[in-house]
């Protein structure tokens, strides 16, 4: 194979006359070199205006021939370049050329070094392990988790460098006697609830008073600047990532949906794996991938019926009926959640002003428990989501979970802010920070405790009961991650150490969740794929919602009598105006010009984001157009090659009899089918039970076979000697070339890849024993997996790369 | 008493290899050291396939035999599959981080082409899927179904096999391909 390609390329090279014998000396030689140089001059001058050697070597490096031929080509190109330089009386490669060449090599080395540094092998290893056990959809959630972790790391670095460290190095914690003598005054109590000495430490807003720090460092301005900077930076990163994913996926989802299985399967093997365990995991991952992709394809094609509700009640068959039922049940569920939120509101009002340490922890605990329990309670209600489109079903359920969680959380926080008016507490920012801190800690402790108990109990229980563990619910995982992240985005202006705390908690929770996926859960049977772009949109929405809430609090309430902004006046952003007024008059005038125009800055920023978004969409569409042009060119080339092979003219008179013959003999529909589709249908007819086009396919099949050997069998394959079947096939090609709208493909019953132990032995779902990785004995389960799909579906992501 | 790598690889040779591969000089010397650890003595020497398969990075790779056959300059005879240093260097260069997508796709195509006819037919795809999923992964029937689906998707000219152009068209849509088609040496 290698030899064949290399020989062909060698022949091409010979034709181009690139064999130049190097060397100087005789005039005959110089004459030859001059001619060679002259021939090559046009190709060399077509290159960019850099140095000849560098560009030639790029072409040599990227050549697909063997190394020994590339070496030969390199020598020839150097000889040619030297000859040309000598002929023109200039140095071979000037100073500038060599410098650029060396810079290019150094850039390559730097790029390789940076790649190694940021490749995060420990994260990549975890993701591979998860993908091999639970499939690509579940591992994609963990990729999102890793992306959020990197975002929080950026937050933590900014806040630590510009706010926390300057304050920590120059100040000491103040004494706080509020919780003296209580559990809240202890280290553990203070760590859990942000009370005692923690309340007046660098943990919370109130401690950041510009006193000693002010002499060398403008803390209020730094505090405000970091808030604004991290806000805008996060938004830019999310929009940029969204645009990049859209640009990457637009072709994948728009044009090349047809190559999805091929792309996923043929590029699935990871050659970086070197261990036996890793290889076995990779085999498992590829097997799951093949089954997932194929079953997803079937589901999209066949549009499977919605299974009965709870296995008993038949689902409505009409669209209106299913929509009405879904909306009704969703409203009932949301009504229940609303009642719970009202209960939380009443509880908060009754606990307002309490001094008891444990009673003050009650409402954050209830809010956290509610956020965790909502996906669990929603599980039985999901059976009533009866849309036929599985993607819409999944989106509906995730949105309901999201709205319910946001409603409970928003009610809690809104009530708190309403209760703690400026008159109630002099330092409402610290009090709000305390509450948000408690929510973060409770969320981490609560979920981690549940996860650890799950990890300990579920494998044992499954062994004892001889059942498989519950399946991974990626939708619930995402809503939980969005809730945790929203807490951070709202809380960081009030709790500057919150990003750093979230980092530590995030690492712990990542590995605990990984352990649950690997050892205490089953892979999802039915995978509904979302693009990473969709997940990023949901994350962006969470961010905007959280930031809007935070901005509402910060920019509408006057600062309290504590913290860095206590002297700024009625709004914290007045700090900037004060500094500008105290500074250079030119800057002050420019500042007034920009910011006294009301909404100038937000409008400008919104315009920048809109331009950014449109730029990405434009680039994506341009890429799409280029790909379509390439595909069209290739189709035309293939068509021309096929015509040349069959040696058929496109004279209309020649086509008419063929079309008439096809209409009479095949008995298929009169609308033209593309040759490609016919061949695929013919190929499928070997497996399909419905051989609707089998007669027609057989005609095409035979025609195609004959056409391949047309030259030998029919003495040169001239138009007049072609068989009618071949003519039929060619006429279809010609017809397809002028057809604008291809005929719609009919849905056929296609064979399924059941996730069964044996396709012949009966439908027994495959269950992997998570402790040993062996296939468990599930002969007691009689139903095939498709009947179990009602409770088994989950949402997932495509196997695109990490963020 | 053996010669050191720097004695065997002179400056001109290193320069040549650096220009023709995606490695720097230091990396080329490192690759040569690994080659010598497998048993290679000089640049002109060649290793048997089973010696190359002892390489840690290739040992558990299900495509290891195909990789050796593709990069070997000896396509038949007693020395079929034998790997010279240049073949070894070429192999590592193609699998390195710096290699471009086109080069990787080209060699991936050759690796998957089990019968070496320049096309990926159904048998090649089934063999590829068997290597990907392991012997206990999919049944033959399931492999056939997946291979049929791949052909249905990617076979544009209807000849029941994938040419390099069609394969490249499919593989270029995988964003992870460049990262996963890599051997870290």
TrEMBL record, chain A:
Transmembrane segments: 147-169, 221-242, 323-345, 357-377, 398-420, 440-462, 540-557, 594-614
Comp. bias intervals (Basic residues): 673-711
Entry-linked InterPro entries: TMC, TMC_dom
Region of interest (Disordered), ranges: 1-31, 649-723
GO molecular function, a single term: mechanosensitive monoatomic ion channel activity
Keyword Cell cycle: no
Low complexity bias: start-end ranges: 651-660
Subcellular location: Membrane
GO cellular component, one term: plasma membrane
Keyword Transmembrane: yes
Keywords assigned: Membrane, Transmembrane, Transmembrane helix
Compositional bias annotation for Polar residues: 1-12
Ranges where the TMC domain occurs: 427-529
Bilayer topology term: Multi-pass membrane protein
Main localization of the protein described in the UniProt heading: membrane
Pfam families: TMC
Family: Belongs to the TMC family.
Entry protein name: TMC domain-containing protein
Gene source species: Salpingoeca rosetta (strain ATCC 50818 / BSB-021)
Automatic annotation (TrEMBL), chain B:
Pfam families with a match to the protein in the record: EF-hand_7, EF-hand_8
Any one GO molecular-function label of the UniProt entry: calcium ion binding
Keyword Cell wall biogenesis/degradation part of the UniProt annotation: no
Domain EF-hand: 100-135, 142-177
CDD domains (UniProt xref): EFh (cd00051)
UniProtKB keywords: Calcium, Integrin, Magnesium, Metal-binding, Repeat
GO biological process: integrin-mediated signaling pathway
Domain of life (superkingdom): Eukaryota
PANTHER family reported for this sequence: CALCIUM AND INTEGRIN BINDING FAMILY MEMBER 1, CALCIUM AND INTEGRIN BINDING FAMILY MEMBER 2
Protein name per its UniProtKB record: Calcium and integrin-binding protein 2
Source organism of the structure: Salpingoeca rosetta (strain ATCC 50818 / BSB-021)
